[in-house]
Design brief:
By secondary structure, the protein is an alpha+beta fold. It has 9 helices and 12 strands. The protein has 2 domains: 162 residues, Rossmann fold, CATH 3.40.50; 83 residues, Elongation Factor Tu (Ef-tu), domain 3. Keywords: Ligase.
Length: 294
């Protein structure tokens, strides 16, 4: 933990960290609270983040936050593995779904027809546009077919790298020259499920199908670790075979409906789960902080 020194051993970590943490940004009020996480206390927050908390507490706080419309994040790191869960409620509005600047292209020609076809290219000469099917676009600076400049955003259908269909233009004035076609990004609403549902039916997204068994096995390993801690009152001891085997047994019993279990992953995870590594905590903490900013 970056904010603690040898002299802080034995102290409450929140209280020991508060002063140094507050110095990072004088404009932010930082308080240390060491009482029980009662609902009356939690109700005053917009976002609640839990770290190193028992599963029972995660479920209790998560259910309360979901019901109250409070954004809820769980962040944890065990050895070399990290875990992050986000529940932003049933009506979370995303103002900017994509990163970077909106897509823009230079208009070369627009046909009169149903549908009308826009010929364009990217703002850098020689490159095609970067629009996708269904993108909403608006027009500006079009000469001749000026009706497009006043039109509400319309969806496009991509024909190829240089042509887009935009709907009925048969009644518009003939196109003469010029113009830009620009992407319009509108807020979108997303619905998040509470932790109790996510645990039962995890929706794991991976870059390739080969990664799915490993990701699923890590999910079950964290679940089994909570069961071990509830049973033994502690985390598995480092490199103690009996403790790792018990976590594996619990994982087998919990993961019967989740697909094949990578037992080597679970065994390795249990063997090092009692360790705290600053780099791993820093990565998981940074991701959690970014979710809080959203």
């Amino acid at each position: 933990q970056f904010l603690l020194g040898q002299s802080d051993v034995g102290r409450n970590r929140a209280e020991a960290s508060r002063r140094v943490l507050a110095e990072l940004n004088p404009g932010v009020v930082v308080e240390a609270y060491t009482g029980e996480l009662l609902e009356a206390f939690l109700a005053s927050f917009q976002v609640v983040v839990l770290t190193e908390s028992p599963l029972e507490e995660q479920l209790r706080v998560g259910d309360f936050c979901h019901a109250q419309g409070i954004c809820f994040v769980v962040a944890d790191a065990k050895g070399l593995a990290g875990q992050l869960f986000c529940d932003f409620g049933e009506h979370f509005v995303i103002d900017d779904l994509a990163e970077g600047d909106p897509v823009c292209a230079t208009v070369q020609h627009i046909s009169q027809g149903n549908p009308g076809v826009v010929t364009c290219m990217g703002t850098e000469d020689g490159h095609g546009h970067l629009f996708c099917n269904g993108d909403l676009v608006k027009f500006s600076g079009v000469e001749g077919m000026t009706e497009l400049n006043r039109q509400e955003p319309v969806p496009v259908h991509v024909l190829d790298a240089f042509r887009l269909e935009i709907g009925d233009t048969s009644s518009f004035s003939p196109y003469r020259r010029g113009g830009l076609v620009s992407e319009v990004r509108r807020p979108q609403e997303r619905s998040y499920e509470p932790l109790c549902q996510a645990l039962e039916e995890p929706k794991i997204q991976v870059a390739s199908p080969e990664e799915l068994p490993r990701s699923r096995s890590l999910h079950i390993a964290f679940w089994a670790l909570h069961a071990f801690r509830r049973e033994q009152g502690r985390l598995p001891r480092p490199r103690v075979l009996a403790d790792a085997e018990r976590v594996l047994e619990l994982a087998r019993s919990l993961g019967t409906q989740q697909g094949p279990l990578d037992e080597d992953i679970v065994h390795a995870f249990a063997s090092v789960s009692a360790g705290d590594l600053c780099p791993v905590a820093a990565v998981v903490g940074a991701l959690a902080a970014q979710e809080v900013l959203k």
